[in-house]
Design brief:
alpha/beta; seven-stranded mixed β-sheet; about 300 residues; ornithine cyclodeaminase, domain 1; eight-stranded parallel β-sheet; Rossmann fold
C-alpha cells in the first residue's frame, strides 16, 4: 500500500492537470457513469465526521473521511484511501486536506472559466483561510484576470493572502471587494450570509464553496434571483447530502456543470444575469484528484510502500 504525505501530495498536484481531470469528472457524473452514494456523517459534540465513497470506471475506488471541527485549526482534516476496483485491495492512503482545498478551488475556477462574462478582468476572494489560499493558487489557470480583491473578517489575514500575488490587494470590507469584481469567490465558513445582492455588479459570476448547515454564506434573495449551477442535483437535498442555501428550491431550477460541459444545458444566457455556482463538495472530485496524485506518484516513484 502506498502512503503519501501532505508534502508529497502538494508536490504532485498541478493546477492545470486538476482542471482537466475535474472537467472530465463532471461530464462522467452528469452522464451517469459514477456510483456515488449520498455522503453520511457522525455527529460529535464539537464537530462531524463525514464519509464520501465513490466509484468511476477505469479509476481506483475512493473513500474520503473528513472531519469538520470549526473550533479547531485547521477546521477541516481529511484522508483519502484508494482501492482496486476489481479486487477491492487497498492501494493507497494519502493526505486529503490539500486535495480537498485544491479540488474545491479548482471547481470554482472551472465555473468561472465557463460561466463568467468573457471580458471579466477583476475577481474578489471573500475569506482568507485555507480555501482562500487555494483559490488564489488556482486563479493562475484563469485567463484575463488583472485585479484581485481580498476581503476577510480579519484584515491582516487578507493582507497576508494578497501578498502572494502581485495582482492582489487587501480591502477593508467585503462590500468594497465584491462591488468592483466581475467574479466573486466565496470561501467562508459563515453560518449567515456575508454579502448582499445590491453590493454586486450586474452580470457577475459567483462561486460559493462554504458549507455550514443549517445556514450558509449566500443570501436567499440572491440565490432565488440567480442562474444556479451545481455539481449534482443532489445539492438540492437536505444536509449533509445537499446545501442549506438551496433548500426549498426545485432541482429543475439548477444546472449541473457536467450538463453544461456536455452541451446538454445552456450556460450564461446574457451579459446581465447573475450566474452562481453553489458547491456542496462531491466525492467525484476527491476520486479523480486522488487518482491523478496516485498515478503521478507511481510514475515518479514518490511515497512509501508498506504492508498492512
Amino acid at each position: 500500500m502506498l502512503i503519501l504525505s501532505r508534502n508529497e501530495v502538494e508536490q504532485l498536484l498541478d493546477p492545470q492537470e486538476i482542471n482537466s481531470a475535474l472537467e472530465d469528472g463532471f461530464k462522467s457524473l452528469s452522464s451517469g457513469q459514477l456510483n456515488v452514494p449520498p455522503r453520511n456523517q457522525v455527529i460529535a459534540p464539537k464537530g462531524i465526521l463525514v464519509g464520501m465513497p465513490a466509484y468511476m470506471p477505469e479509476n481506483l475506488m475512493s473513500v474520503k473521511l473528513v472531519t469538520v471541527f470549526h473550533e479547531n485549526t485547521p477546521s477541516h482534516q481529511a484522508t483519502i484511501t484508494l482501492f482496486d476496483s476489481n479486487t477491492g485491495t487497498p492501494i493507497a492512503f494519502m493526505d486529503g486536506e490539500h486535495i480537498t482545498a485544491m479540488r474545491t478551488a479548482a471547481c470554482a475556477i472551472i465555473s468561472a472559466k465557463h460561466l463568467a462574462r468573457t471580458n471579466s478582468k477583476s475577481l474578489a476572494i471573500v475569506g482568507a483561510g485555507v480555501l482562500g489560499h487555494a483559490h488564489l493558487k488556482m486563479i493562475g489557470t484563469l485567463i484575463g484576470i488583472e485585479e484581485i480583491f481580498v476581503a476577510s473578517r480579519n484584515f491582516s489575514h487578507a493582507q497576508a493572502l494578497a501578498a502572494h500575488d502581485s495582482r492582489a490587494r487587501a480591502v477593508d470590507s467585503i462590500q468594497q471587494a465584491i462591488s468592483h469584481a466581475d467574479i466573486v469567490c466565496m470561501c467562508t465558513s459563515s453560518a449567515e450570509p456575508v454579502i448582499q445582492k445590491d453590493w454586486l455588479k450586474q452580470g457577475v459570476h459567483i462561486s460559493s464553496v462554504g458549507y455550514r448547515p443549517p445556514g450558509g454564506e449566500l443570501p436567499r434573495d440572491l440565490v432565488e434571483a440567480g442562474h444556479i449551477f451545481v455539481e449534482s442535483k443532489v445539492a438540492y437535498k437536505e444536509p449533509p447530502v445537499g446545501c442549506s442555501e438551496l433548500q426549498g428550491l426545485t432541482p429543475d431550477s439548477g444546472t449541473e456543470l457536467g450538463e453544461f460541459l456536455l452541451n446538454q444545458k445552456e450556460g450564461r444566457r446574457n451579459e446581465i444575469e447573475t450566474t452562481i455556482y453553489k458547491s456542496m463538495g462531491h466525492a467525484m472530485e476527491d476520486l479523480v484528484t486522488a487518482n491523478l496524485v496516485y498515478q503521478k506518484a507511481v510514475k515518479q516513484n514518490i511515497g512509501k510502500q508498506i504492508e498492512l
